[in-house]
Amino acid sequence: MRHIVVIGLGKFGSAIAETLSNKEHEVMVIDRDEKRVEKLEPLVTQALVLDATDEDALRAAGMKDFDVAIVSVGEDTEASILITMLLKELGVKEVVTKATDQLHAKILKKVGCDRVVFPERDMGQRLAESLMSTKIFDYIELSSTHSLIEIDAPESLEGKTLKETELRSKYGVSAIAVKRKTPIIKEDGDTEFREVTIIAPSADEEIQKGDRLCLLGRNEDLEKLKTL
Predict the structure, then answer these.
(1) How much is the pTM?
(2) Are 126 and 197 members of one domain?
(3) DSSP secondary structure string, 47-88?
(4) Distance in angstroms (rounded) separating the CA atoms of residues 106 and 210
(5) Contact in structure between 119 and 100 (CB atoms under 8 Å)
(6) How confident is the model at residue 126 (pLDDT cuts 50, 70, 90)?
(7) Whole-angstrom Cα distance, residue 117 to residue 13?
(8) Three-class SS of residue 136?
């Protein structure tokens, strides 16, 4: 069992703290926002409301006794750099800090950060890797939590209506468009295939062989599509 402290309880920090606690690690959480701390308090070993840029406050909280510290203080780059430096000076064995860009990451390394993470970028990479079995033609990260992908319609969905695919009810993703190769008879009698995009398809739209689906959803929901 490892002793871990999570500093900064935004979406990333809260998710990390809850996951680690569920895996039976000893987890302390720290944030200046009392409401955030109160929300996590029942789920972790200890929850403190304090300013992590205050060296005396960190020392009093016993930072030297922790194996790992995870710093996730949002867009406040100055605070994350200072907190990282203080944690190393106080003897924390491993400090993992969330960075916003490459310059931020470079400075964190300079002050002793053991590992820099980019949650949004890493999530996008993980999503892409998890869907390697499904050919992705386009991937657009709309935010840190939502993305738009264009994929080949899996064979398991062919012949089903969008409603029958349960993409929304089961997987939590929305089909915002269907791209389909449609045969067109030219003047000389030859046939050519042209791509037609069906925007906002109805629930009764039937998926055909060769269709491409444009899907919108949360990253964790899109990741579930690998089971199709």
Answers:
(1) 0.58
(2) yes
(3) EEE--TT-HHHHHHTTGGG-SEEEE--TT-HHHHHHHHHHHH
(4) 46
(5) no
(6) low
(7) 12
(8) strand
Question: How many C-beta atoms lie closer than 10 Å to residue 23's C-beta?
Answer: 10
Written as six digits, the tokens of 102 are 């490459």
Q: Mean pLDDT score of the chain, rounded to an integer?
A: 87
Domain final residue, candidates 96, 117, 138 = 117
CATH no. for residue 163? 3.30.70.1450
- Going through 2-51 in order, the beta strands assigned E by DSSP cover 3-7, 26-31, 46-49
My answer on whether 53 and 150 are in the same domain is no
Domain that includes residue 40, residue range? 3-117
The answer to whether the beta carbons of residues 4 and 67 sit under 8 Å apart is yes
Alpha carbon separation from 54 to 83, 84, 85, 205 (Å, rounded)? 8, 12, 12, 59
Residues 108 and 214 in one domain: no
- Enter the tokens of residue 62: 């016993």
81 vs 18: which has the higher pLDDT: 81
Please state the domain count of the chain. 2
Strands 191-199 and 26-31, by their bridges, are: unpaired
